[in-house]
Amino acid sequence: MDNASIRDAARALFPGGVNSPVRSFRSVGGNPVPIVRGEGAHVYDAEGGRYIDYLAAFGPLVLGHAPAGVVEAVRKAAGTGTAFGALTPGEVELGTRVRDATGLERLRFVNSGTEATMTAIRLARAATGRDVIVKFDGCYHGHSDGLLVKAGSGIATMGLSDSAGVPEAIAGLTAVLPYNDPAALKEWFGAHGGQTAAVIVEPVAGNMGLVAPTQEFLDALQEVPHAHGALLIADEVITGFRLRYGVCGLLPEADLVCLGKIIGGGLPVGAFGGRAELMDQLAPLGPVYQAGTLSGNPLVMGAGAAMLDALADGAVYQRIEELARHLENGLNAAIHRAEAPAAVTRVGSMLTLFFRNQSPTDYAQAREADTAMFGRFHAAMLERGVMLPPSQFETWFVSAAHREADLDETVKAAHEAMRIAAPVA
Ligand code: PMP
Known about the structure:
With 425 residues, the protein is an alpha/beta fold. The chain has two domains: 3-66 and 314-421, Aspartate Aminotransferase, domain 1 (Alpha-Beta Complex), CATH 3.90.1150; 68-311, Aspartate Aminotransferase, domain 2 (3-Layer(aba) Sandwich), CATH 3.40.640. It has helices spanning 3-11, 68-79, 89-102, 113-128, 168-171, 182-192, 215-227, 276-279, 298-311, 315-338, 363-366, 371-383, 404-421, and strands spanning 35-39, 42-45, 50-53, 106-110, 132-136, 149-150, 157-158, 160-161, 174-177, 196-201, 231-235, 256-260, 270-274, 343-347, 350-354, 386-387, 396-397. Helix 3 (89-102) packs parallel to helix 9 (298-311). The chain is globular. 4'-deoxy-4'-aminopyridoxal-5'-phosphate binds next to helix 4.
């Protein structure tokens, strides 16, 4: 089947032709590219078109596509049974690696980041006996009801849901504050500290495009909730094992940590963990229920362990940061030459090119980016064989499979694409 017939068939099957909305390319005004194969830094469409890939499956593929160790581990696991609904040694093997790398005393594997954050919040509510949670505008923590909530404009408001079908009674328990605003956090806790169970945050925000945290914000996150008896939940679904081996290190005082993506080697996974005293409130030891038919699945555990084995000595992190810096420098030079109204934000191997004169520090600023220009840029990059995440508000991921030559080709394409995408004066 060619690209168009796969798309057409998908449209008759799945709402919007996809099984997850950003994949529809609606935010960039294009058509989704059906991918049939990935190898290293490249993906291939159904017609043999090749793209340098920075989407990287939205984050898990820190070694690029189909790394030999991970593929072999999945084959091996599949050959001895795909699921048991019973304790398996694979869970212990990956669990031990995650615990040793993160310092989390107890953890539990689930099947997605959504499940990890959803359950961490349930646990925080049970542990504190409080109902309200605080999240930050533009941070994404998966699609459970209480987390599909954004702020009204400006100062903190109790949330209105971002999605139909979320009862007001649930959305109303989520307060949304601006990212990187310690004063707003203090103000919230000054007024509502006694009702607030937890603050959940992406230590580096990756879902409004990449937005780096300030040290003042990180300090406030670790002080203010604790001063009021609330918990801090670090959502490291993207940053865990991406910025370094283990948690990213920006929120050492977090009570609960959510993981996903990389620790499953590209298979469906999530995990959350923390102190034993807190985690042991989960069933069957405690009253907080959580479960999963396929949680700790042997294929996922094998893939995750092989992935972490390849990352454990830390060399990959140095390499991917160097590569990402090379790309950042090239993109900045291209912006300068094309006189484009754009800025690059980078943290480690994560980056976003914003069509805004300066890198944003919060979602209000990120939303000022010229998304129509990003759409034209995205299409021109695709024509030149570069697969970027199909939205201005996503992060590009550099992997250990990228080569300098890929990055240089990307920069050359970006220079041309910026000129093509420029608004007509
Ligand atoms: N938290 C963060 C920070 C994420 O980026 C995501 C997904 N991109 C999630 C949670 C939800 O993970 P999943 O899509 O696996 O449910």
